[in-house]
Design goal:
With 104 residues, the chain is α+β, with helices and mostly antiparallel strands. The chain is built from 3 helices and 4 strands; from the N terminus they run E-H-E-E-H-H-E. A 4-stranded antiparallel β-sheet has the order 2-3-1-4. InterPro entries: HapK (IPR021667).
Length: 104
């Protein structure tokens, strides 16, 4: 069964949205998909609440990364060049990352 890693990210400002999404398509996606253990990678832009009375989330995006083995993924992301994370942080003001499993 795959494990899922979520990166919940917040942009520095809406001014970087277009360039961040281009970076995701051109750099982040290929980098993530090349990591050992990554089975599927997606980035979802959060648009707003679906139901009345629900606040707009503080996050801008959710990265959804399905991995075959969490330890392998953690090791491989730890070996990713620092320049990649410098680029990431040039767009992102804050992020959280968590791992989970699908409930079936």
């Amino acid at each position: 069964m795959s494990e899922i890693v979520f990166f919940l990210t917040t942009l520095h400002s809406e001014d970087v949205r277009e360039s961040y999404e281009q970076w995701v398509r051109e750099v982040d996606q290929s980098t993530a998909e090349a990591l050992p253990g990554v089975e599927r990678y997606r980035v979802v832009r959060l648009e707003g609440p679906v139901m009345d009375g629900v606040a707009t989330p503080s996050y801008s995006y959710i990265e959804i990364i399905e991995v075959s083995d969490l330890a392998t993924y953690q090791k491989s992301i730890g070996a990713t060049p620092a320049a990649f994370f410098e680029q990431f942080r040039s767009y992102i003001s804050a992020f959280d990352s968590v791992a989970g499993m699908v409930v079936q």
